């Protein structure tokens, strides 16, 4: 199904587990359905994805600021937003095998597992409930947020008052969300605890169509710039009957996952629904006052809402390659350098004391700049394979000649080409390569091998 025909979900799950990207949650207890833990490499990859988003959405712009809200919020927030009454999926039970399904996802009205007869659909609210304080009674119910967006809307006034931002401007947030999904699966694609990257962009009514167009292109370009194959991405416009009642337009960015085209991110024109609802329920005016004209308006909102875990999965699937190397196959993760967990790995050819000393010195200087691996076990060929498999763009080999000529060998992950360069030029050279300089451009004293 996938554009990348070498990849399937089993290979991704197995690589993630084997190399410490992602483990099942509570693994030693047999796992917890649809919950996942990010291991030493996964946590770096995930962090790099969030950093790339934050950089593009907040740091590199003048018109967006950040926020980090609490997961637990006043229960009225979810009444105002419509989640208490409307955030539900239709659930059906199989009368024979008792499996549960989302009615809107079934192609036929018989159980996909055993072919049995299904019950009438009933609405199942996806919000997780818990209790605030020691007494478990209905007045103490609070919800784990099912999206990060509402924290942004309820802070609209705080942000306007403290930043003096003028329309149009956005507020961005990344963080955990929870949904008690009826059906989960496809690894980290759909889980009950996940992370989102959301931005609410407030604009003048009447400019909203243009901003929707602008943001859907920005967001598509973000994935492309981070190396996703254009053939594996597409827009899907929501049909009128799919749109939420308050929304004027919505596009999904879909990725060709191993199980087929599926949503990676949604970009919606939410009009003035959220601010109007929160103004009504809180009794606070959430109008924006134009200083020059004195006009009071409720801004319209364009919302690009992306899943961190789904992005991680898309980047992994997109990067996964198997290719022949001499008489073996190698597995390579061709991750964009800015996403790769390690940018560089230092590999001393042997564990001889004088070589290790030099390799450690090099490691110390390189790690000031980037997260850098160090590996002195097994053959050099095996060590290259290991770094390929976790997506490290450059390996630096320190050999016995290095002690004499003060040079090291740098190997590029994707082409497997090697260059020999002076140690004194190493950091500068790696810096240039990581920013996209062709590998065969050499520093003074360097040569291709
Ligand atoms: P779906 O139709 O797949 O359930 P949705 O349309 O309900 O998704 P939104 O409410 O638009 O999703 O959430 C925005 C983004 O958050 C999604 O595009 C997705 O990347 C991510 N997301 C939503 N639900 C989950 C989940 N259960 N697990 C992982 N990521 C999720």
Polypeptide structure, described:
α2 packs across α9 (308-319). Helices cover 30% and strands 28% of the residues. The chain folds into 2 domains: 9-68 and 146-316, BirA Bifunctional Protein, domain 2, CATH 3.30.930.10; 342-448, Anticodon-binding domain (Rossmann fold, 3-Layer(aba) Sandwich), CATH 3.40.50. It has 449 residues and is an alpha+beta fold. The protein is built from 13 helices and 24 strands. 35% of the residues are buried. It binds adenosine-5'-triphosphate. Adenosine-5'-triphosphate is lined by residues 147, 179, 181, 190-191, 194, 196, 263-266, 305-307, 309-310.
List keywords for this structure.
Rossmann fold; globular; 449 residues; seven-stranded mixed beta sheet; binds adenosine-5'-triphosphate
Distance between the ends: 39 Å
CATH topology of the largest domain: BirA Bifunctional Protein, domain 2
CATH architecture assignment name of the largest domain: 2-Layer Sandwich
Compute the CA-based radius of gyration: 25 Å
What is the structural class?
Answer: alpha+beta
Write down the overall mean pLDDT.
Answer: 95
CATH homologous superfamily caption of the largest domain: Bira Bifunctional Protein, Domain 2
Biggest sheet: strand arrangement: 3-9-10-16-13-12-11
Main β-sheet: number of strands, strand sense, barrel status?
A: 7 strands, mixed
């Amino acid at each position: 199904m996938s554009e990348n025909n070498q990849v399937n979900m089993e290979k991704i799950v197995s690589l993630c587990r084997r190399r410490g990207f992602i483990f099942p949650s509570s693994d030693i207890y047999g796992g917890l359905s649809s919950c996942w833990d990010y291991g030493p490499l996964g946590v770096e990859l995930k962090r790099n994805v969030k950093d790339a988003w934050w950089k593009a959405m907040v740091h590199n712009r003048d018109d967006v600021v950040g926020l980090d809200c609490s997961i637990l919020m006043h229960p009225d927030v979810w009444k105002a937003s419509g989640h208490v009454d409307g955030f539900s999926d239709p659930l059906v039970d199989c009368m024979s095998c008792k499996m549960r399904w989302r009615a809107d996802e079934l192609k036929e009205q018989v159980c996909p597992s055993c072919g049995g007869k299904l019950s009438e659909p009933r609405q199942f609210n996806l919000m997780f409930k818990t209790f605030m304080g020691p007494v478990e009674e209905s007045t103490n119910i609070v919800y784990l947020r099912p999206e990060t967006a509402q924290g942004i809307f309820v802070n609209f006034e705080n942000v306007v008052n403290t930043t003096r931002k003028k329309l149009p401007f956005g507020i961005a947030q990344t963080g955990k969300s929870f949904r008690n999904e009826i059906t989960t699966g496809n690894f980290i694609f759909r889980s009950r605890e996940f992370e989102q990257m959301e931005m609410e962009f407030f604009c003048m009514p009447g400019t909203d169509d243009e901003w929707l167009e602008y943001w859907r292109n920005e967001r598509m370009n973000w994935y492309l710039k981070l190396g996703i194959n254009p053939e594996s991405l597409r827009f899907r416009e929501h049909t009128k009957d799919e749109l939420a009642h308050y929304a004027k337009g919505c596009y999904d960015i879909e990725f060709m996952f191993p199980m087929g085209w599926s949503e990676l991110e949604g970009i919606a024109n939410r009009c003035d629904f959220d601010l109007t609802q929160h103004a009504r329920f809180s009794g606070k005016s959430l109008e924006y006052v134009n200083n020059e004209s004195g006009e009071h308006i409720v801004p319209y909102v364009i919302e690009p809402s992306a899943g961190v875990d789904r992005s991680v999965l898309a980047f992994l699937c997109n990067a996964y390659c198997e290719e022949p190397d001499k008489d073996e196959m190698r597995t390579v993760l061709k991750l964009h350098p800015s996403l790769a967990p390690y940018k560089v790995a230092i590999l001393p050819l042997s564990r001889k004391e004088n070589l290790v000393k030099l390799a450690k010195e090099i490691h110390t200087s390189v790690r000031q700049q980037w997260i850098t691996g160090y590996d002195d076990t097994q053959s050099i060929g095996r060590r290259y394979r290991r770094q390929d498999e976790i997506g490290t763009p450059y390996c630096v080999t320190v050999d016995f000649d290095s002690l004499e000529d003060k040079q090291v060998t740098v190997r590029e992950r994707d082409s497997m080409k090697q260059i020999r360069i002076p140690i004194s030029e190493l950091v500068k050279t790696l810096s240039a390569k990581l920013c996209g300089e062709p590998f065969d451009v050499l520093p003074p004293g360097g040569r291709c091998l």
